[in-house]
Design goal:
Elements (H helix, E strand, L loop, with lengths): L2 H34 L8 H22 L8 H21 L6 H27 L6
Helix pairs in contact: 1-2, 1-4, 3-4
Length: about 130
């Protein structure tokens, strides 16, 4: 599998992952918290806004998957999303404790962060080699 194809598959997976998470928390956030045995925030908007943002990022990841070379400029935003989430979760995990429901998402996002960095490097290398057909 060439790098462009690998990057496309990666971002399809990211779009599906973030899209499903966003939809779950947007439309059934209370049930998700209940399933994990965690008390939800006192207002659903605290969950719905970040869930809607996940849907926006899922759309961006789908755009990257559609043309990884042309949309490589969007990859750093995905890296920043994953770094932001992981940074907050790891900080609280290490300092104050954290409900277990957030930990698997953090591990998954840490993996995505590493793979997004690889994807950005691969697309930059392709650009320096002369473009999408190189």
């Amino acid at each position: 599998m060439n790098a462009k194809r690998g990057v496309a598959v990666l971002f399809i997976a990211a779009a599906v992952y973030d899209g499903l998470l966003g939809a779950a928390f947007l439309f059934a956030g209370g049930r998700v918290f209940e399933w994990f045995g965690v008390t939800p925030p006192n207002h659903p908007g605290y969950v719905q806004f970040p869930a809607a943002l996940l849907l926006v990022f899922a759309a961006m990841f789908a755009a990257i998957a559609g043309d990884p070379f042309r949309n490589r400029n969007l990859i750093p935003y995905g890296i920043l999303l994953k770094a932001s989430y992981c940074g907050v979760v790891i900080f609280h995990w290490m300092t104050a404790g954290l409900p277990r429901m957030w930990k698997p998402f953090c591990v998954a996002d840490l993996l995505f962060l590493i793979l997004f960095a690889w994807a950005l490097t691969a697309m930059k290398r392709k650009a320096s080699d002369g473009g999408p057909g190189a």
